[in-house]
Amino acid sequence: MKKRIGILFFIAVFVGVTFGAAQVFAAAKVLKLAEVHPKGYPTEMGDQKFAELVEKKTNGRLKIQVYGNSQLGSENDVVEQAKLGVIEFVRVSTSPAISVFPQIGVFSMPYLFRSQNHMWNVLNGPVGQHFLAAMEPIGLVGLGYFDPGSRNFYTTKPLKSAADLKGLKIRVQPNPIMVNMVKLLGATPTPINYAEVYSALQTGVVDGAENNVPSWVSQNHYEVAKNFIKDAHARLPELLMVSKKFWDTLNAADKKALKDAAKEATGFQIKAWNKAEDDYLAQAKKKGCIVSEANVAEFQKAVAPMYAMPEYATYKEWVDKINATK
Q1: How many CB atoms neighbour CB 261 within 10 A?
Q2: Percent of the chain beyond pLDDT 90?
Q3: pLDDT at position 95, please?
């Protein structure tokens, strides 16, 4: 009798442990986060920190796998997939988000942010929080922002001032704001796929491009376009978003965990960005690149007419609020 009881007890314990393990396994959801940049890039590092924090804050119930280097598609592609709930998380620039939420295009206006600190005061304030919340009706929930650095011009020809851009072919994103800005600077905007920029610079299809320091160096554009001018014409905030379809399946505690993780990851990512920018600039200078400080006022004067263009009239309210932010 005792032997039978012992066997039954063993079976009960075994079944209980197995069932418990199965419950834990079933509860641990592995989620996708789409990123276009490669491993080690500052925004990808921010993604990894976010994933680490989410797993910790949800006691392992939510696990996020970061798919970098555009494995899940371009930024435009993954935004659409997130809206449908195919991908749970995306990290994208505000530029591709314009196609689904036109108002956020205000962040692309040239020389809108006076500095990195000014940008973060805006993003952490009423304006930035408004745009995060306003994404919900289109099927996305904004969790926070990452630092994008400043976008600057770099060319295969000498570049010391705004006048040096005149007549050059400059690669731009397929963004009407960037196209108009380059036109006002006297250059020819040339939309080209990002993956083709290096060869376009090397073969003379374009004379230059515009981007942030880590992209200029990490993509090896600095090898063929050695002239860089720090004009900081744009700071396009990076968006960390979650699919609303997935968000609506979460309980209040897990929603809070995601928002808290995003906030902590942002602080980590800003530090990673600043360090990467310093390291990459030093690397470029060591390779013989010429990095010039721009007379920003002359660039601003050239593109000022954009703010009076009818197509950007809807941005005026937000431009005024951003300008008023200290």
Answers
A1: 25
A2: 84
A3: 78
pLDDT band at 27 (very low <50, low <70, confident <90, very high): low
Q: Mean pLDDT: which of 70-79, 144-153, 169-178 is highest?
A: 144-153
Q: Check for a shared fold between 2-148+236-278 and 151-235+280-324.
A: yes
Q: What is the residue extent of each domain of the chain?
A: 2-148+236-278, 151-235+280-324
Alpha-carbon gap, residue 106 to 112, rounded angstroms? 8
- Alpha carbons 54 and 36: distance in angstroms, whole number: 21
For the domain covering 2-148+236-278, report its CATH number: 3.40.190.170
**Alpha helix (H) residue ranges in the chain:** 2-27, 42-57, 75-84, 94-97, 116-123, 126-133, 176-184, 197-203, 213-218, 244-247, 252-286, 296-303, 316-324
> Which position has the token pair 């374009």?
206
**In CATH, 151-235+280-324 is 3.40.190.170:** yes
Q: Residues near 1 by Cβ (< 8 Å), separated by ≥ 6?
A: none
